[in-house]
Amino acid sequence: MGNPLLEKIELEMAVLVRRVTSITSKNKIGNLDRSAYLLMHELSVEGPSGVKTLAENLQLDTSTVSRQAASLEKKGYVSKIPDPTDRRAYFLQLTESGTSDFNEYKKARLDRFEILTEDWTDEERKQFGNLLKKFNQAISEK
Amino acid sequence: MGNPLLEKIELEMAVLVRRVTSITSKNKIGNLDRSAYLLMHELSVEGPSGVKTLAENLQLDTSTVSRQAASLEKKGYVSKIPDPTDRRAYFLQLTESGTSDFNEYKKARLDRFEILTEDWTDEERKQFGNLLKKFNQAISEK
DNA sequence: CGCATATAGTTGTATTATACAATAATGTAG
DNA sequence: CTACATTATTGTATAATACAACTATATGCG
């Protein structure tokens, strides 16, 4: 029974998440973890934003973002600019060192993906990226 | 600069892992978590195995597997059969209730993936499964 | 205007999944 | 038979998350 195409996706997805989780636990590249990376990515794409906006965009609880932001601030990667129109709120902004370490980390990640897919065709890379994105969108929406 | 194909994979992969992690935290389907699921999958495919073998096959630390096994045993999903040739070792074996709840959980997961990919072509599903597998193999090996 | 409610962010606490290190019990080889 | 290796467990730590409680501030209504 069952749809073998779905079964394959289902199993490989479980394996993938485990592998990546496992890597995160030990093989952390540099000073940045995946979650901080996504937060910084968001800041670098969207510009300075507050905890609430970030939490919405990243689909995380504000408490989670708040802690990540605190940790990044401690490392000097983001600074908190008070929102002049609302004294409860801040804008989180990447610092210079944040930006440069973010780029360095991104490069290290890309190198890793380069190696992982070194024997793939560009067509495969393209499909994989597209399908991952499509899948992520589905998860976000459904 | 950089390779846009790789950048897309890299980013979407980070997002994917977060989404799935997030789902695991709240939306747990039934009584089984992803990690227990993979362990039970392994047992159902490979038959009764010891902690060490499982850890090797799943590429996890033995301590991690040992705890998962203990938790599954507590739920009555696996039983420990002493290895007659080595009194340090056990075989973990799925119980009936383990098998049936595993199948039920698997079905729930498949339903979920069915929905997530409901507007995909079979060709896309096939490609996604293949590429995920290929990627997982790369991670395991490189 | 002032109180009630809403909102931004932080902090306390819990859960899940993992690793590494130390240990106990048992096996094995010289 | 002793020294070393191996199987599994347990202690401890880390990362990433959520929910709930709280603080401070904002807003809107009577």
From TrEMBL, chains A, B:
Family annotation (SMART domains): HTH_MARR
Pfam families, A to Z: MarR (PF01047)
SUPFAM superfamilies assigned to the protein according to its UniProt record, in alphabetical order: Winged helix' DNA-binding domain
PROSITE patterns in the record: HTH_MARR_1 (PS01117), HTH_MARR_2 (PS50995)
Coiled coil regions, renumbered to chain: none
Keyword line: DNA-binding, Transcription, Transcription regulation
Single Gene Ontology MF annotation: DNA-binding transcription factor activity
Domain HTH marR-type as annotated: residue spans: 6-137
InterPro entries, A to Z: HTH_MarR-typ, Tscrpt_reg_MarR-type_CS, WH-like_DNA-bd_sf, WH_DNA-bd_sf
PANTHER family on file: TRANSCRIPTIONAL REGULATOR, MARR, TRANSCRIPTIONAL REPRESSOR OF EMRAB OPERON
The name this protein goes by in its record: MarR family transcriptional regulator
Species per Swiss-Prot/TrEMBL record: Fictibacillus phosphorivorans
